[in-house]
Amino acid sequence: MARTKGYPEALEKKLHEQRFFREDSNPEFSKKVKTLSRTIPHMCYQCGTCTGSCPSAPRSTYRIRKFMRRVVLGLENEALTDPDLWLCTTCYSCSDRCPRDILPTDVIMTMRNLAFQRDIIPVNFLKTVTAIYASGHGVPNNDVNRAARERLGLTRDPPTTHMYPEYMPAIRKIIDHYKLKANADRIIKEREG
Amino acid sequence: MAEKKSTTKKTESKKDTKKVAPVKQEVKKQAAAPAAKPKAEEAPAKSPIDNLAKAEDARIGVFICHCGTNIAGSMDIEAVQEAAKTFPHVAYVDNYKYMCSMPGQTVIHKAIKDHKLTGVVVAACTPRLHEPTFRTATKDGGLNPFRFEMANIRDQNSWVHMHDREGSTDKAKDAIRIAVAKAALLQDLHPKAVPVEKAAMVVGAGVAGMQAALDLAAAGIKTYLIEKDMSIGGRMSQLDKTFPTLDCSQCILTPKMVDVGRSPNIELMTWSEVHEVEGYIGNFDVTIRKKARGVMTPKEAEAKGIVGGGCNGCGDCEGVCPVIKPNEFEIGMKPRKAIYVNHPQVVPLIYTIDFTSCVKCGLCVTACGPEKRAIDLEMKDEFVKVKVGTAILATGYDIFPIENKQEWGYKRYENVISSLEFERLICASGPTGGHLVRPSDGETPKRVGFVLCAGSRDNTGTGKPYCSRFCCMYSLKHAHQIIEKIPGCVPYIFYMDIRSFGKMYEEFYYRIQDEGAKFIRGRVANIIEDKATKNLHVMADDTLLDRPIDMEVDMVVLAAAIQPAADTNRTRKLFGVSCSSDGWLLEAHPKLNPCGTTTAGVFLAGVCQGPKDIPDTVASAEGAASAASIPIHMGEVELEPYFASCIPEKCAGCGMCVNLCPYSALSLVEKDGRTVMQVTEAKCKGCGTCGGFCPGGAIWMNHFTTPQIVAQIDAFLLGGEQ
Description:
The structure holds 2 protein chains of 2 kinds. Chain A has helices at 9-17, 27-37, 49-53, 64-73, 76-81, 93-97, 104-117, 123-135, 143-151, 168-177, 180-192. Chain A is an all-alpha fold. Chain A folds into 2 domains: 21-117, Fumarate Reductase Iron-sulfur Protein, Chain B, domain 2 (Orthogonal Bundle); 123-192, no CATH class. Chain A starts with 8 loop residues before the first helix and ends with a helix. By secondary structure, chain B is an alpha/beta fold. Chain B folds into 4 domains: 1-22 and 640-722, Alpha-Beta Plaits (2-Layer Sandwich), CATH 3.30.70; 53-186, Rossmann fold (3-Layer(aba) Sandwich), CATH 3.40.50; 199-396 and 566-634, 3-Layer(bba) Sandwich (FAD/NAD(P)-binding domain), CATH 3.50.50; 400-563, FAD/NAD(P)-binding domain, CATH 3.50.50. Chain B is built from 20 helices and 34 strands. In chain B, strands 10-7-6-18-29 form a 5-stranded parallel β-sheet. In chain B, strand 21, helix 14 and strand 22 form a beta-alpha-beta unit. The radius of gyration of chain B is 32 Å and the shape is globular. The chains are: A mainly alpha, B alpha/beta.
């Protein structure tokens, strides 16, 4: 807070947050996202094709282009603490159309992983982890679905872990290897008691 | 060691051969430049092998350039100089801050005289940049200019090993050792001068080709102007107005078209293609395919004895022709007959039959009548041979097939059109008489979306990675035209950057914004058609407002990317011109020689070299015309004396090399009762294909002789021991 106008501290902080200062940017963050996402986020020229293609954008405040900009400038905290990070539906429309051949979806997924390392994650995502751990499905089958499947001449359960529960131990082994379930349980407990 | 012995032996045997095997070297013309004259007179009777320097007598001077800090900053010049002093044959070593400067060159002249040098090695940049400079310096010092060898210690050393001082120093020593080994064996060579045909060819008669042809003709040079279409004018004749002056495109182009048609020095060949090219600078033999047109010009008719006959452009034939096809000039938006002209102002005004759709009913022949007798339904392609000294390629561009970017719906949605279609629709002589209408219902649009960078600046592999350079400006012009012609019509321009870089272009941008065009900074993600109204929803992100947009418009104009014209690749190969990875033809140097190519005597004009607007195209055409006229006005050109020579005593006359030569420079001849190979030196480019292949070692590659190359390899592998 080198530059000050002598306002009360809270107002100074608000003013500071409205501007972009060099020290806000962490070049290491840009490099890290580039390596982990295996795409080229630093090549973004901000044309907006991603947001224009995004099914989430017209229905929410999620702006994929803005996240790409934050990666270019290394705005780590701003990117990882923005709740909009979790509004991507991973439809890959942006990745299909990006004229710079970047995969913005993969950049978002990378930042979600980095955020999770700091325990920044909405609880509903963690509940999905719990569901997968229990059934092998993020959205497990239910009776409405089962009836619909029957009407279509399909088996009541799909040929997945629902039909072959004997594969569940292997799925749990993978999840446990990354301590995903343990972390999910811990965070859910912290937040919901 | 054994290897070294054998190579040395080989070298000696070559030297022996040269004494008994004088190669006939005819000098067609005494050398061109007066300075080279006395030397050229010495040469005739001698074999090129006779004056091969004997390594043991060689006294080589090595000159190391610092190139400011370009070289000196990354290596130890002192250490390189000390090492160079120890190399065999080195009689003198010096270094200088800028060897190419006048004082630097003086160092070379002086050393040649003071130290009785027989060869010069300059360790500096690349032969491409400064070989001519140092050859001149070598010549000024009293040596044959081909006694010079360059060691590249900058582009291939100091620049790439900028942070490895020790490594780059060692590499520089190696490079110099290798160059010295060759320099010790360099021979005197004498460039040949060949006369230049006082005629030129221009391929493509768009605005670039026409301007180049007019300039060449005005300079008194007979010019063949070849155009694959039936009439001249190219893309520019399809445009309505030009930015930023809003001149009518046809109005400013027609006088040039008429001049081309009238110029006594221009031989215009429309409906023609270059079929074959042989020869070299000064003497290109070009075969032109005159495609069967089905209609004779008055000149052709007269040649056939039909006095006062031939096509006069009356159009009687068109009236009776029963075949209807889409007119390509109007991008299919207007019908034409099987016998037709592109538009009413064509030059030359000669009808053409589209034989792929003609049913040969003969109605046109009857309509043409017994006096003109212009139509010949049995006409066949003809081949015409011409000889020219230089050639200019002006093959232009095509519109990128924008339907490949499926998200914008071109060819799927009726009201999505390309910018070239817009030009025809807004043009008074176009299919709608200048009324912009929606293709779906013929209604006048009230809201028009313009999609910029449609296929340009696209790295996905579907589009083009480059900026097509003039789409921003013509889209601004389109915006102006609809505001002017349709009261209340609003243009919405979806852009990423507006590139208004030319003279008065930024001012034009200001003007169009002032007139009411709406600029939305965001690339269009996709377009969705309303099935009922055929209106279009343009989906984009207003990046400045940070809000996604769903903009309903009546019509969308895609500012499509451009790509090299369809036949460019075939034509460039005929002339031996390279292209870059995006297909545009490759200039000799992007800054210092933008009109030249790596093939001597072949030049580039206009968009075939890369996207250009009309002012840049015309400037480039004038540059190409000027460059192409220089060899013609000089009267003769010097050819690099790097040609192959045959050693008849060793030649078995097998003829394998004759078939291998990519330049048709070799032939078999009878000599003293034997069949031996003979080189047409002017055609030979010195590529070495024959020399590398010859099973008997009978081919001597001047300036790249086997002993010279073996010495270089030895110098590198064996550290310069001889």
